[in-house]
Amino acid sequence: MPTAEIPDETTVTPGGRPAEAVETIQREMTAFARRARASAGRMHPELSLVSYTLLGHLEERDGCRATDLAAHYALDKSTVSRQVSTLERTGLVERRVDPDDHRVQVLHLTAAGRHILAQVTESRRTAFRERLADWPEEDLVRFAAYLERYNAWQEAAPGADQD
After folding, report:
1. Which of 70, 99, 102, 131 is the most buried (most CB within 10 A)?
2. CA-atom Rg of the chain in angstroms
3. How far is CA 81 from CA 8, 54, 63, 95, 145, in A?
4. Which phi and psi angles does 12 have, rounded to 5°?
5. Taking the chain, what is the end-to-end CA distance rounded to the nearest angstrom?
6. Is 13 in contact with 19 (CB distance < 8 Å)?
7. Residue 108 DSSP code
8. Helix or strand or coil: residue 116?
């Protein structure tokens, strides 16, 4: 894999960072997000990237309320409601009464939801493995650490992330 050239740009952002590097990061992350949305549709035509993400969260948490999904992903409740309705109609998610509070409904994956999530997850892993196959291990480790660091910023400063 060719190493990115280091620009000899002297313009810096107000935070003292090279402006060209910040612009490149923004552009490349936008391209990554576009590719992720497009590939989600190819992996399963009825499963958008948002739907895939919500299913993954439900599996990880073994169910949760729709309001918890909205809060976790900083999405509008109506957006989550539409997504959940679609997932329910397609039989991937079901609502169950919370045994501790019968006023609350908890969303859970159905068997079909678990099956489709597993299929899409494996397809995504395969795609990532193929794309990164020729990267040296130290680059992979460094890239993973940078992504974790970048994504941890939102957790440290809630509401401040403007991706």
Report:
1. 70
2. 19
3. 48, 11, 15, 12, 34
4. -125, 155
5. 27
6. yes
7. E
8. helix
Residue type, 151: N
Q: Show the tokens assigned to 83.
A: 């997504």
Residue type, 67: T
- The Cα-based distances of 138 to 29, 49, 68, 134, 141 in angstroms read 21, 29, 37, 12, 5
Instruction: Quickly list H helices, 6-48.
Output: 19-43
Say if residue 155's pLDDT is above 70: no
**DSSP3 helix / strand / coil % (the chain, rounded to 5):** 60, 10, 25
Query: Hunting for tokens 């497009």 — which residue is that?
Result: 38
Provide the token pair at 123: 């397809």
Per-residue pLDDT tens over the stretch 7-32: 454 455 556 667 788 888 889 888 88
3-state secondary structure of 95: strand
Report CA-CA distances (Å) from 156 to 12, 151, 159, 162. 25, 9, 10, 14
Q: What is the pTM of this model?
A: 0.71
Residue with tokens 């999530």: 117
